[in-house]
Design goal:
single chain; alpha+beta; 3-stranded antiparallel beta sheet; 1 helix; 3 strands; 19% strand; flat
Length: 84
């Protein structure tokens, strides 16, 4: 299994899939959703290591910067489909 990695908070284009768990990179947040089973086998251990590596990178990035108490997350604007 290849090692997947992201650069937290550096772009809007990276997405990683681990099992049914999705990690999406944004410049103001990293979204993690879905589910993953950490099974008691080599595949489960690899999934755990990938998830831990991603969480460790996120923590390092957050810890190296002075952070505000809370950011205002701007939701994307919904626009009318021009093809309808």
């Amino acid at each position: 299994m290849s090692k997947k990695i992201i650069s937290p908070f550096q772009n809007e284009s990276e997405t990683i899939q681990i099992g049914d768990l999705t990690v999406e990179n944004r410049v103001d947040r990293v979204s993690i959703y879905g589910s993953i089973d950490i099974t008691r086998d080599k595949e489960g251990l690899e999934n755990l290591r990938q998830l831990k590596a991603i969480l460790d990178l996120i923590a390092v990035e957050l810890e190296r910067t002075e952070l505000p108490d809370k950011i205002a997350v701007v939701e994307p604007e919904t626009v009318k489909n021009p093809f309808e």
